[in-house]
Design a protein that fits this description.
26% strand, elongated, disordered N terminus, 2 domains
């Protein structure tokens, strides 16, 4: 199991390291962390379990829920689900049908424009430059910049916008999420 493939676990380990005060790199770090967790939470997470979680040893297994609960309590949450909801906004294991409004790329004519926004105070004016391709015309408080290009088939109000990649000049930037916490709160086709 690669901890980067499970965002909740990766984030939990980062938060535990932050509380510990430095990266866990040596056997002694895992011993000290195990003792700290036992002292603060009155529960044990073994040194070997911590080493497996951090990939310090090659034997990798899926962590038990009880282990994740203890580590979540160590950083101030009630349990792992509380950590996931508080830190990441949703439970990744849930699925549901949602009734949300959306604007699809087909709703905007070629060369047409769209405005999207999300909290806090982020706003993009986009121009449709291809079937599902968009160019940022202006950017207000966003990490996306004027001239950036990306592909998106639809924009959902109240849900995050996930872009697998962003083209900035000759460079291809990694995936980008807009409105990660509360989703897009502005979507309007400009006339």
């Amino acid at each position: 199991m690669d901890k980067k493939e499970i965002p909740e676990l990766y984030t939990l380990l980062q938060e535990v390291e932050k509380k510990y005060g430095r990266p866990l790199e040596h056997t002694n770090d895992f011993r000290v962390l195990s003792a700290l967790i036992e002292y603060e939470c009155k529960d044990v997470v073994s040194v070997s379990t911590l080493k497996r979680l951090w990939g310090y040893v090659s034997q990798q297994t899926t962590p038990r829920g009880a282990t994740l609960d203890v580590m979540s309590r160590f950083i101030g949450y009630r349990d792992f689900n509380d950590f996931r909801v508080s830190k990441l906004g949703t439970l990744s294991e849930t699925s549901e049908y949602v009734d949300v409004s959306c604007v699809t790329a087909h709703d905007v004519p070629d060369g047409g424009s769209l405005t999207i926004g999300w909290a806090p105070n982020r706003l993009l004016h986009l121009r449709k430059v291809g079937e599902q391709e968009w160019e940022v015309v202006t950017s207000h408080n966003s990490k996306l910049l004027a001239g950036d290009r990306f592909e998106s088939a639809c924009f959902f109000k109240g849900l995050p916008l996930f872009l697998p990649s962003v083209q900035r000049g000759e460079a291809v930037l990694p995936a980008y999420i807009a409105g990660k916490k509360d989703g897009l709160n502005v979507i309007s086709i400009n006339s």
